[in-house]
Design brief:
InterPro entries: Sec_Metabolite_Reg, Zn2Cys6_DnaBD. GO terms for molecular function: DNA-binding transcription factor activity, RNA polymerase II-specific; zinc ion binding. Keywords: Nucleus. This protein has 29 helices and no strands. It has 3 domains: about 10-120, no CATH class; about 190-340, no CATH class; about 425-720, no CATH class. It has helices at about 10-15, 25-30, 45-50, 55-65, 80, 105-115, 120-130, 145-175, 185-195, 200-215, 225-235, 250-265, 265-270, 275-295, 305-315, 325-340, 360-385, 390, 425-450, 455-475, 495-515, 520, 530-545, 555-580, 585-600, 610-625, 635-650, 655-660, 715-725. Helix 19 packs antiparallel against helix 20. By secondary structure, the protein is mainly α. The protein starts with 8 loop residues before the first helix and ends in a 15-residue tail after the last helix. About 55% of the residues lie in helices and about 0% in strands.
């Protein structure tokens, strides 16, 4: 059986060496990457495809009806007739490089060859005419030549169509060619991105799902109705978007939404779109990479645009779930720089802010939208920076360095102002989260300024009371558990999910405040309150997150809440064993029960990298607890405590806090009687704020080693996650992001 040919059809027809890549280097250099294939459209025929091109003389003489043998071998012919004359076919058109086919000789060359024989003597010509009298002019036509001509005709048609598409793209983007790709690489990348777009019906389904169920979580930083209209305009009544004809930064936002919708949607929803669980992770990661490619094709780092910030800001809904947290962290910092370059940090009060949108002109209303979207984006960027501060030990956004005001709540369709905090508006969630994040940044500052352990613990108690009071007093009413659920809110499906999620977030923020003293609380009775606060908060998180609802998206922050709660419960379980010499107490059995529930909750997210690695980590705690004690309880306790004491000497090093830094504020816990600083009373109404901007780190970037006893396999989670894979002078009055 003959070996399958590995040379591409283009190199084979050119009779050139092929490096057998796909596409091969020669085709890429000749701008024919889209034609590079090893499959022959009508089958490989050596009689046709291995045939050397005919010489121009033969074609020229046949067209004149002259038989080549009629010429005497001694006849003196022009040099161009004796030359090989292998000038390839050149397609008429303004292509950047000629398209060649050695098997085809242009009509121009044939005419030239015929003309070049006009200087020959007439006698041989007359004798040849007599010799061929009565012979058909089609005598030399064979089936092979007909098939070759047909294939060449179809090939030239495809080349013309491609040339027209390339010409259109080049004419619109010649002066803004990407600096991140060579011309050849850019051509290949564009072709690859185009092939990754799903069918039109699925694109619209994902955009609608993101708008209805996920946009609130990122604070509605883009205009969902307008974006959907722009997508329909891009299709222009067809079934395919030609990406090269549109702004690459707009395409980046499109891929960002597709990636978030794919990995964030429930398994039932994605199956209704035609995608299995195995495809969710792969496609979301692929579209995330496409988002990055579009940003570079659009030169986002030098050509600032609001699309870039929106696409980057929306990345955190998917990048953590697919295990790309470090990449997200890099682009998050870039998004902050672009936002400053667009002047989003200087969107202060504007004279037209007080005009009712109904009384505005079209131009004024558009300017209002731009200001509000800019404020939402800046508010979200600042919030996520501050929420990360307790884990990172620093933050980049200083309150005194910007003048932008907080975004105001508006109706999404009419843009009418909303003043009742019992009416669900996602902007209210954004503002509430901003307030909690701002207090956490102050908490970091005071912890850094505290001179000793006693002063630091006073700061912890102070902010424990502040965080609880914010969740009790400043949270929007429609999110509070004490507010009865209104059936009219069903048109905003996210409200029901958010009420539960914010409860868990509030509890998580309490853990963030107390985490640096959690280790000491197992040994020193002065810090017993921290142990109680963390344990009760952890149980509240497990209780709140135990049930998933239909259509509810999966958020990596909620999963990180559960992982953090499981870590605290696991530490308590280990210390129960140490203090009781291996005996099982009632408290230990309760803690073990909550850990089992936490693992079961994480297993309800089968397509999340965060959840899967969280299961492995918490399972390692349970396995460690099941082992018989190998050391005296006192020795184990002391060694663990020494490690934790070293950690707590640093203001923000505790690992539980780091696991929580990706999360936003939400849950509340009953507050027991505690030190003087504890002013909050125990109430079930203690909920928190919006989860949408829980844009902090992912468990991927966390070091859990400081919280575990020596010998406990704490690397299971950490190593697994590592293995997963503008003008500054723009003012508020004349700012235009678009």
């Amino acid at each position: 059986m003959p070996k399958q040919r590995q040379t591409c059809t283009r190199c084979s027809m050119r009779r050139q060496k092929c490096d057998r890549k796909s596409p091969c280097t020669r085709c890429v250099q000749n701008k024919e990457a889209h034609l590079c294939t090893t499959e022959w459209s009508s089958g490989y025929n050596p009689a046709i495809h291995r045939k050397y091109p005919r010489k121009a003389l033969l074609n020229g003489t046949r067209e004149a009806g002259i038989k080549p043998q009629a010429y005497s071998s001694t006849t003196s012919l022009p040099n161009d007739v004796h030359s090989p004359m292998t000038m390839p076919f050149r397609m008429s058109g303004n292509l950047e490089q000629p398209l060649r086919d050695p098997s085809y000789i242009s009509a121009a060359n044939s005419t030239t060859s015929t003309d070049s024989t006009s200087g020959l003597t007439a006698a041989p010509l007359e004798s040849e005419v007599l010799a061929t009298y009565g012979r058909s002019e089609f005598a030399d036509i064979s089936v092979a030549s007909l098939l070759s001509a047909k294939e060449e005709y179809e090939f030239q048609l495809s080349l013309r169509e491609h040339a027209q598409n390339v010409g259109t793209a080049n004419s619109s983007s010649k002066e803004k060619r990407s600096h991140s790709f060579s011309p050849a690489a850019q051509s290949v990348e564009v072709h690859h991105l185009q092939s990754l777009l799903p069918p039109k019906e699925q694109v619209l389904q994902m955009i609608d799902y993101h708008s209805r169920c996920m946009a609130y979580w990122v604070g509605s930083v883009y205009d969902e109705p307008s974006f959907r209209e722009s997508v329909l305009e891009a299709y222009n009544g067809t079934e395919q978007i030609s990406l090269c004809k549109h702004d690459w930064l707009w395409s980046a936002l499109l891929f960002s939404i597709l990636s978030a919708s794919m990995i964030g949607s429930s398994e039932e929803i994605s199956k209704s779109w035609g995608y299995s669980n195995a495809e969710k992770m792969r496609l979301s990661r692929t579209w995330g990479h496409s988002l990055i490619s579009c940003l570079h094709l659009g030169d986002f780092a030098s050509k600032y645009h609001i699309y870039s910030v929106q696409a980057i800001f929306n990345m955190h809904t998917s990048e953590h779930l697919v295990g790309s947290t470090k990449e997200w962290a890099v682009y998050q910092a870039t998004g902050l720089v672009i936002a400053r370059g667009l002047g989003m940090h200087r969107l202060g009060p504007h004279p037209e802010d007080d005009i009712a949108p109904a009384d505005m002109t079209t131009k004024q209303k558009e300017a209002l939208k731009q200001r509000e979207y800019g404020r939402r984006i800046w508010c979200g960027l600042a919030s996520q920076d501050w929420l990360c501060s307790t884990s990172q030990g620093n933050y980049n956004v200083q309150r005194r360095h910007y003048t932008s005001i907080l975004p105001r709540p508006f109706e999404k369709e009419t843009w009418a102002p909303v003043k009742d905090d019992n009416s669900p508006v996602d902007t209210m969630v954004t503002v509430f989260l901003h307030q909690v994040a701002y207090e956490l940044s102050h908490y970091l500052d005071e912890m850094l300024d505290a001179p000793d352990i006693s002063a630091k613990y006073n700061v912890v108690l102070k902010y424990d009371a502040i965080i609880r009071s914010i969740h009790l007093d400043k949270m929007p009413k429609f999110l509070r558990r004490s507010t009865p659920y209104d059936p009219a809110w069903d048109k905003w499906p996210w409200v029901f999910w958010a009420r539960r999620s914010y409860e868990a977030s509030a509890a998580h923020k309490v853990i963030m405040v107390h985490q640096s003293f959690l280790g000491k609380s197992f040994k020193d009775s002065r810090y017993t309150y921290s142990r109680w606060a963390c344990l009760s908060s952890s149980k509240a998180i497990v209780d709140a997150m135990e049930t998933r609802y239909p259509e509810e998206p999966q958020w990596w922050i909620e999963q990180a809440f559960v992982v953090t709660a499981g870590l605290v419960l696991g530490l308590d379980l280990i210390h129960h064993r140490s203090s009781s010499g291996g005996a099982t107490s009632v408290e230990a059995r309760e803690t073990r029960s909550y850990m089992d529930r936490a693992i079961a909750t994480l297993e309800t997210w089968p397509t999340s990298s965060v959840a899967s690695h969280g299961v492995r980590l918490l399972t390692s705690f349970i396995d460690e607890h099941a082992k018989p004690p190998t050391a005296k309880p006192s020795e184990t306790h002391v060694s663990s405590e020494e490690a934790l004491n070293t950690t707590c000497a640093q203001p923000v090093v505790s690992v539980v806090e780091e696991a929580s830094r990706n999360i936003d504020p939400q849950a509340s816990l009953p507050v027991p009687e505690m030190p003087e600083q504890q002013s909050s009373s125990a109430e079930d109404d203690c909920f928190v704020n919006a989860n949408w901007a829980g844009i902090e780190w992912d468990v991927d970037m966390i070091d859990f080693e400081a919280l575990v006893d020596p010998g406990l396999n704490g690397h299971v989670f950490f190593e697994g996650m590592l293995g997963v894979a503008g003008d500054d002078g723009v003012g508020a009055s004349n700012l235009s992001f678009f």
